Amino acid sequence: MSAVGLIMGSDSDWPVMSAAAEALAEFDVSYEVGVVSAHRTPQKMLAYAETAAGRGLRVIIAGAGGAAHLPGMVASATPLPVIGVPVPLKYLDGLDSLLSIVQMPAGVPVATVSIGGARNAGLLAVRILAAGDPALQAKMAAYQESLKDLVEEKHSKLASRRVASGPRSAATREDGA
User: Fold this and answer.
1) Residue 105 belongs to a domain
2) Global confidence as pTM
3) 16-53: per-residue pLDDT in tens?
4) Fewer CB atoms inside 10 A, N or C side of the chain?
5) What does the DSSP 8-state code read for residue 160?
6) What DSSP string runs through the chain?
7) How many CB atoms lie within 10 A of CB 75?
8) How many domains does the chain have?
């Protein structure tokens, strides 16, 4: 049984949404993947949302571009938490999707990540699940520690860089600043 439903309006969204699947897999969180269009298959979308909890899902991640109605419509038909991922398209670079997903009416909450932020959607789903799972919570804490270690490693590499001839004067800098 899958814990997370990972849905998108079109298979063309997969290059973005696959990052959510990768994040879930890193934490051994089971998930299902599917294409559910709010505009082309509205009955399928409603059936998916209405049966999700009964099928054992605990969180839904919904990615959509353009008008991006999928996350909000799914949230309106399920008691589960829904995370919306604005998928960037050819025009407006996903800003239209972001504004559509984030502007939900009262009573229809959708947690919204950044444009193309499917990895963070996956990580947010893990955190939601970890609230009731001490083992998963420990994995998330270890992941957060690894991020700190990565920052320190990057800091050390950058701090070790030295300009061989010392500080450059304004007259010798390429940008003239």
Assistant:
1) yes
2) 0.88
3) 999 999 999 999 999 999 999 999 999 999 999 999 99
4) C
5) T
6) --SEEEEESSGGGHHHHHHHHHHHHHTT--EEEEE--TTT-HHHHHHHHHHTTTTT--EEEEEEETT--HHHHHHHT-SS-EEEEEEP-TTGGGHHHHHHHH-PPTT---EE--TT-HHHHHHHHHHHHHTT-HHHHHHHHHHHHHHHHHHHHHHHHHHT---TT-SPPTTT-TT--
7) 24
8) 2
Q: Are 24 and 78 in contact (CB under 8 A)?
A: no
pLDDT tens digits along 101-146: 999 999 999 999 999 999 999 999 999 999 999 999 999 999 999 9
In this structure, what CATH number is given to the domain that contains residue 8? 3.40.50.1970
